[in-house]
Write a structure and sequence with these properties.
This protein has 13 helices and 17 strands. With 483 residues, the chain is α+β, with helices and mostly antiparallel strands. The strands form 3 sheets. Strands 7-11-12-17-16-15-14-13 form an 8-stranded mixed beta sheet. The chain has a 5-stranded mixed beta barrel with strand order 2-3-4-6-5. Strand 2 and strand 3 form a beta hairpin. Helix 4 crosses helix 7 and helix 6 packs antiparallel against helix 8. Bound molecules: adenosine-5'-triphosphate and magnesium ion (3 copies). The site of adenosine-5'-triphosphate (ATP) has 17 residues, from strand 12, strand 16, strand 17 and helix 13. This is Asparagine--tRNA ligase.
Length: 483
């Protein structure tokens, strides 16, 4: 007797006695037999276990309900049913944990995503979420594989940090002081010298600054860790806790950075296409059903896998921010003929603009470069003044994806100490706050570049889901933290 995951059992030759362990999805009784479908999370598929009517004791039969956890032993035999090669001829049933059908929230029917978000503790037991979680796993593995294959070192940057890479003020504070009654200095301010680290600290919003330290020592590094932003944006693209992948490379200029970003996302998506075919097929079908409920003009022209293949097989469009603004100013989006936010050189592009460029104008992923200096972070390398842009720009790049908008933000980094500190002074960052960062420009500075990819936005794109809360096992967003 052997115990194998359902995924392997389904590919095992009939003839041997096996045990399947997992959760009952459905039980169906006919005049002559009872059919139990069991899933154990190893695959989207269930394996069917069959017993002749009357074979199972009544009490056992009663406890085999949707959601119950069971071990079923019996001979693996060729299946008569369609769509499956083998099934288990039940000889013995052990019930690990029954699930009262009156109370178990997951029934054998399709539940709405909204409902499943409310029972996030059980949704991994559904087909949709188990498929997403397996795809998420495969993508995470592909990320590590990609960087390992390309000579990068995995660098762990601090989660609790005193630096604020983005300066966007979206930080969660970390403190051991009594929040209601903190110690005060003589002039009435909170006395952080009594705090655990002796100064104000927060959860990291990005590992980039520390990542740069790694690149300027090890050459090529990447981080892949949790990131926290207390942004009050209740969008379908933002989480308060998300995972970010941040490669940082010495001797890479902006062009090399773009090439890496494009090759990287294509390679990991290809990995998912090659290794998650069953789960992608399931999600694709789910989407097809959803599409049918939409108006004709809003229906997608491509299926999920067609969309993924298209991204993998075609060059991304590359243009400057300035060129993009020209296109947007001359375009007539949708029927209303205008964007909600008017476009002029210098604005931070909104997701409606990004998605117009990607979905309507170019109809493919786009890399936008050379953004106005004023709307980007202090650490981005300043472009030489150029007649091609109406104001100062930096060597930034954002990768924009259909249905998502920004999936990657990156840049070549400013490697000139004087330019960097001048810019810091302009935006109000004291040299002392990141003296260690400035040291890398003071001693052995080198051209270098990097970017950040929001892992959940990648999973969102690959799974075809439309809300970022549905592609992370335990979503954290404003007013939601069950765990
Ligand atoms: P956005 O414009 O969408 O708010 P951003 O420009 O603030 O993103 P960056 O600081 O450039 O984000 O971070 C790099 C990447 O991290 C983004 O391109 C995106 O993929 C991802 N990201 C940023 N904020 C979030 C969030 N709150 N939840 C999930 N992913 C995020
Ligand atoms: Mg943001
Ligand atoms: Mg942005
Ligand atoms: Mg960005």
């Amino acid at each position: 007797m052997s115990y194998l995951p359902v995924k392997q059992l389904l590919q095992t030759e009939p003839g041997q006695t096996v045990t399947v362990k997992g959760w009952v999805r459905t039980k169906r009784e006919s005049k002559n037999a009872v059919f139990v479908a069991i899933n154990d999370g190893s695959t989207i598929h269930t394996i069917q276990a069959v017993a002749e009517a009357g074979f199972l004791p009544d009490e056992t039969l009663r406890l085999i309900t949707t959601g119950a956890c069971v071990a079923i032993t019996g001979e693996l035999v060729p299946s008569q049913g369609a769509g499956q090669a083998v099934e288990v001829q039940i000889a013995d049933v052990h019930i690990y944990g029954p699930a009262d059908p009156e109370k178990y929230p997951l029934q054998p029917k399709r539940h709405s995503l909204e409902f499943l978000r409310e029972i996030a503790h059980l949704r991994p037991r559904t087909n949709t979420f188990s498929a997403i979680l397996r795809i998420r796993h495969a993508l995470a593995f592909a990320v590590h594989k990609y960087y390992n294959d390309n000579g990068f070192f995995y660098l762990n940057t601090p989660i609790i940090t005193a630096s604020d890479a983005e300066g966007a003020g979206e930080m969660f504070r970390v403190s051991t002081l009594d929040p209601l009654n903190p110690p005060k200095t003589e002039d009435g301010k909170v006395d952080y010298s009594q705090d655990f680290f002796g100064r104000e600290t927060n959860l990291t919003v990005s590992g980039q600054l520390e990542g740069e330290l790694g690149a300027l020592a090890l050459g090529k590094i990447y981080t892949f860790g949790p990131t926290f932003r207390a942004e009050n944006s209740n969008t379908t693209r933002h989480l308060a806790e998300f995972w970010m992948i941040e490669p940082e490379m010495a001797f890479f200029e902006l062009e090399d950075n773009m090439n890496l970003a494009e090759d990287f996302v294509k390679t990991v998506i290809r990995y998912a296409l090659d290794n998650c075919a069953d789960d992608l097929a399931f999600l694709e079908n789910r989407l097809k059903e959803e599409e049918k409920t939409k108006k004709k003009e809003e229906q997608s022209e491509m299926t999920l896998t067609e969309k993924l293949r298209f991204v993998v097989d075609n060059d991304f469009e590359r243009l400057t921010y300035t060129e993009a603004v020209e296109i947007l100013r001359n375009s007539k989006p949708a029927k209303k003929g205008q964007f909600q936010y008017e476009v002029s050189w210098g604005i931070d592009l909104q997701s409606e603009h990004e998605r117009y460029l990607v979905e309507k104008h170019f109809k493919k992923p786009v890399i936008l470069t050379n953004y106005p200096r004023a709307i980007k972070s202090f650490y981005m390398k300043q472009d030489d003044e150029s007649a091609a842009a109406p104001g100062p720009t930096v060597r930034a790049m954002d990768v924009l994806f259909p249905g998502i908008g920004e999936i990657i933000g990156g840049s070549q980094r400013e490697d000139n100490l004087e330019k960097l500190t001048t810019r810091m002074a302009e935006v109000g960052i004291a040299d002392e706050a990141i003296w260690w960062y400035l040291d890398t420009r003071r001693f052995g500075s080198a051209p270098h570049s990097g970017f950040g990819l929001g892992f959940e936005r990648l999973v969102l794109f690959v799974s075809g889901m439309s809300n970022i809360r549905d592609v992370i096992p335990f979503p954290r967003a404003p007013k939601s933290a069950e765990f």
